[in-house]
Amino acid sequence: MMGKKMKGLLSKHEFYISLVIVLLCIMIEIRSGQFFTPNNLVDLSSALIVPGLFAIGAFMVIVSGGIDVSFPALASLSVYATTRILTDINYKGGILLPIVMVLVFGALLGAFNGFFIAKLKLPTMIITLGTSSVFKGIMQGVLNSTQIPNIPEGMKNFGTAALFVAKNEQLGLTSRMPVAVLVLIVAIGLAFFVLRYTMFGRAIYAIGGNETSAYRAGFNVGRTKFILYVIVGAVSSLAGLIRTCMMGQMHPTNMLGMEMMIIAGVVLGGVAITGGDGTLTGCMLGTILIVMVQNSLILLGVPTYWQEFFLGALIIVGTGISAMQVLRNRKRLVSKKLGEESS
Amino acid sequence: MAQSVIKVVDVKKSFGAVKALKGVSLEIAPGEIHCLAGENGCGKSTLIKIISGVHAPDSGHIEFGDKIYTKISPIEAIMNGVQVIYQDFSIFPNLTVMENIVFNSELKDRRKLVNWKRFRRIAEQAVDRIGFKVDLNARVGDLPVADKQLVAICRALMFNAKLIIMDEPTTALTKKEVNALFKIIMSLKEQGIAILFVSHKLNEVFEISERFTILRNGEKIITGNTSELDDKKFTYYMTGREFEDLRFKPKNVSDEPLLEVENLGLTGYFHDVSFSLKRGEILGITGLLGSGRTELALSLFGISPADQGKIRIKGQEVVIDSVASAMKHNIGYVPEDRLSEGLFLPQSIADNIVISELENISSKSGVIDKKKRRSEIEKWVKELGVATNNPNNACNTLSGGNQQKVVLAKWLSRNLDILILNGPTVGVDIGAKHDIHAILQNLAHEGLGIIIISDDLPEILQNSSKIIIMKNGTVVAELNPEEIVENQLSEYMMGGNE
User: Fold this and answer.
1) What is the chain A residue with the closest CA to B99?
2) Is residue A60, in this structure, part of any structural domain at all?
3) B497 confidence band (pLDDT: 50, 70, 90)
4) Distances in Å between the alpha carbon of B217 and those of A153, B22, B40, B44, B435?
5) What crossing angle do the helices spanning A199-209 and B97-108 adopt, rounded to 10°?
6) In angstroms, what CA-CA distances link B403 with B334, B393, B442, B448?
7) A321 and A16 in contact (C-beta within 8 Å)?
8) Closest by CA position to B452, among listed B254, B313, B224, B294
9) Which whole-number Å values give the CA distances from B258 to A119, B288, B403, in the listed order?
10) Tell me: the pLDDT tens digits for B99-130?
11) Is the Cβ pair A210, B92 closer than 8 Å?
12) CA A106, A107, A108 angle in degrees (round to 5)?
């Protein structure tokens, strides 16, 4: 029984990625002695909020067999529009209205993606590359976007509001755990529930596994995809809003280009790029690893320009391991079959 | 006849200018096993799609008991007890057995939330119904093909099915698995469920079905009792042509062996395989799936090189450790799965023909000589009778038999010495099958050494000059086809485990 459990664990991608994370933690701790300090851990969690939210969206799309490269542009546009409108009317209220606005804008832009993907049945990569440019174009051309240095007070307060403050006695540093971390926790909880306990969530897996079968089984494939992209648009835009609030200013191009890093994290977490396979746990672990490498290599004394190198290496090794696992499983299946035939 | 499960009356359907069905009627009684046969493009799949509600007929109607439909939706078809098991089983390889079985009924009940306990309960009942022993938490993608099919059958039974349509259900199964499937079909019959069994394998039609319907070019040729059917009639109804059994008689056999294999083996797959092949001979290799027959072919073609034994070609000992080295020794291989391994389906027929002789038709600097290319293509299309009016059409526009001819052309254009074919007529119509057999026999007469690997025993018997039977990774018998009959072959293959 114990043996069987161990074997199940060892065949799980999540186990290996946790192992890598633990090893990296220990390495950083040994080199710097600063990793397990309260303020570093809080800093890490705070850095995880935005990539974590993006990753949830990217994860659901990849599981459904698609790939979305438009979410940073989509988020930038909806957050820019929200911030612009609110500063222009000199908004003085709390965070609630900005959140509602950004969710509505995000859902609308997501619906734009979803419409083309569900109706035209074109490859999602092509469509989202296109809409990504469209979103950027609207933001920079139509809205004539510029940096907004003074965002509404309510947004700024939300970005700096602390759940608690962690202190590093040794160095006298303090770090604030943003209230926004609650958004990430709630989002993870919701995503888990939706994916595991709703037919909509299972439909995402089913479509990623075999779209024709999903259609024949009676899933409404088009509607499921449409809703999926609406949700992803809303979640990504919320992530963008949080980032803007935490930075205290709206920088329209600041988020662009994040898509590759986020997708890399999701894939690193064992989510099959071909769709249908992967867990939310894996997705979050992969994202944590990416965020750690980005934030903690400095503690190891690695120059920042080496970060990209390490990220790249990590992705190659990470995806390589899962590719090897697939090969091994296939071999085992063949030999099992041979055994059955001869018995 | 008792009240029928389904009655299809004079159904017509066109797609654009193509008349797929020209007035077809069909009636099936409860508990009847009815075989639907016909060559590719005869309208079989259109008929199934009309019964299951995917397509609406242009005219005619469908009756379920007293209910008459001129047009039926997929949900209405299900409500009337129609279930289709598609050739690819329509499963989700990434999900568990449980989910695969339960999804359809949950969706039909319009449930929004997942209750894993209910899922398990329903799935358990479903697998129990046919006595299927399986781990409900296993990923379906990890199961053997036969189990995947059983998952699809369990799912079909969830809906109070009265008619189960099985689209070529035996294509990917071993003999043993086919027998197991037939047992299940018989037990379904006892429960009063009718089966519409789509197949063009003769022996299966005889074994399982009571009545049959044969379509050709969108018309019903005949419906009748299987007991009144024989080989010759079956082929005639399917194709409208009479074929003579061309038994292969080797002429022009060389004195020297072309290929000699001595104690060849690949650890874990096959061992101690020895045989020799002369020019003008056709060697038939047969055995059950997993007997090592495919792996042997892959070794001879350098895809998974052998690690024991010797290979001699024209008396010279050679090492075949890659596809390139096999090709250097003029060996060609027509794979089992031509769709994924033998052809570039979306590319043109022309490009597929010349792909393996590019160096012969291009200049020294590597530019392709258009004239040479065209003449090569014309030559092979004509010689092998590929049915196309434009070789620039994509390969996937051809039928299975014609695709196989293109694979052959690809290799023959290289002036081979040895041609290895794995399942040369799998999924090919009877007419095209005869053509391919004739082509192979001619090639042997022209001096090629040919190896055919197949589990189609009549094919092996008819086309080989020598047969070897593999079992558990090695050769168990070498036989002369003149001296044996089909039953003896399968006895050797299944043979008591002495």
Assistant:
1) A202
2) yes
3) very low
4) 75, 8, 9, 10, 19
5) 120
6) 11, 12, 19, 21
7) yes
8) B294
9) 59, 27, 28
10) 999 998 888 888 889 999 999 999 998 898 88
11) yes
12) 90
Domains of chain B: 6-239 (3.40.50.300), 257-494 (3.40.50.300)
Min Cα separation A51/chain B (Å): 27
CB A217 to CB B289 under 8 A?
Answer: no
* Mean model confidence pLDDT for chain B: 86
Residue B226 and residue B36 in contact, taking contact as beta carbons nearer than 8 Å:
no
| Burial class of residue A134, CB neighbours in 10 A (0-12, 13-18, 19+) | middle
The count of residues in chain A is: 343
**Which run of H or E residues covers position B278?**
strand B270-278
Question: Cα–Cα distance between B471 and A252 in angstroms, integer?
Answer: 69
Probe site for chain B from A219, A223, A337, A341 (most B CB atoms < 10 A): A341
A212/B90 CB distance under 8 A: yes
Report in angstroms the alpha-carbon separations of B400 from B118, B204, B387, B404.
44, 20, 11, 6
Pairing of strands B449-453, B282-287: parallel
Q: For chain A, what is the domain count?
A: 1
Segments in B42-114 forming alpha helices (H): 44-51, 74-79, 97-108
Question: Tens digits of per-residue pLDDT, B147-165?
Answer: 898 999 898 888 788 999 9
For residue range B164-197, list pLDDT tens digits in order.
Answer: 999 888 877 777 788 888 998 998 899 889 999 8
Pairing of strands B282-287, B308-313: unpaired
Contact B114 A197 (CB under 8 A): yes
Q: Inspect the interface and report whether the beta carbons of A209 and B92 lie closer than 8 Å.
A: yes
